[in-house]
Amino acid sequence: MIFSILYNIYGFTIGIVIILIFTLLGFFLQIFVRKSKVKRIWQGLSRLLCNLILKLLFLRIKVEGLENIPSGQCIITPNQLSHLDGIVVKKFVKKDIFAITEPFDKFNSFAAFWMKKLSFVDLRRTKEEDQRYPNSHSRKEAMLLAEKQLNSGLSLLIFPEGHFERDKQLKKFYPGAVKLSLATGVPIVPVSIQGTEEVWPPDKMLRRPATIIIIKFGRPFLNKIMKKPTERLIKQKVILLKKEIAKMLPQSFLSKRWEKNV
Fold it and tell me: How far is residue 24 from each of residues 20, 162, 257, measured CA to CA in Å?
């Protein structure tokens, strides 16, 4: 217990310090580049930042399937266990990436600042969030903006479940990733993550730095551009995506009804 508390204090102190340093560095570097290149500066710094955070937390990571990451754009679709998931993905996907996330106002100021610099799209997911975060995007607005970002050349990180797996069971998959792939032709890469929930569980302290994190990248699947796909086709592709991720996870992540829970 004492070790977990000390590790938690260390982790958050180190995190705040290096994020502050990288933020100041970003402001300094953007002075010397054209306005059109500023976003590339922040993307590059974010990759370095994620690598440094993982090293300073003394995390061991096993990765499989790096050869499955396309050389061009892609839509990365992991299961969601922890706040660390996006950082782990960023370490291995060396592309300019934006993500679809919950309302910015739910995050601390530093996190929200970086999300905006990296062109993240925030989304209101519930009626309660509609009322509390009116400045965030509706589902329709978020999808249109994400499509625009993909068409500009960025890759996308999106968690199909939309929420954390607090019981380590695959949850319902939402169709956003599939719809965006069909709208833009950008391939989807299924990704499985294990172990991050042991290091940083949702809404809890950091713990267990000795835990091995396992991330697997599955084979990408292409979608032809279809502006008006049928609901049946969308559902079929969502089921396919869920099956591809399920194949890379232990059986313990799959409930008896996991295939029907789409």
Answer: 6, 32, 49
Amino acid residing at 4: S
Sorted by sequence, the CB contacts under 8 Å of residue 241 that are 6+ apart come out as: 77, 160, 173, 177, 178, 188, 190
What's residue 125's pLDDT?
87
Is 22 within the bounds of a domain? Answer: no
Q: Is residue 8 part of a domain?
A: no
CB atoms within 10 A of CB 218: 19
Does residue 258 lie in a domain region? no
pTM over 0.85: yes
> Which residues in 127-143 are b (16+ Cβ under 10 Å) and which e?
eebeeebeebbeeeebb
CA distance 9 to 14: 8
How does pLDDT run across 47-92, given as a tens digit for each residue? 999 999 999 999 999 999 999 999 999 999 999 999 899 999 999 9
Give the structural domain span for 125. 60-253
pLDDT band at 206 (very low <50, low <70, confident <90, very high): confident
Instruction: Return the number of other C-beta atoms located less than 10 Å from residue 228's C-beta.
Output: 6
Residue 178 belongs to domain with CATH number: 3.40.1130.10
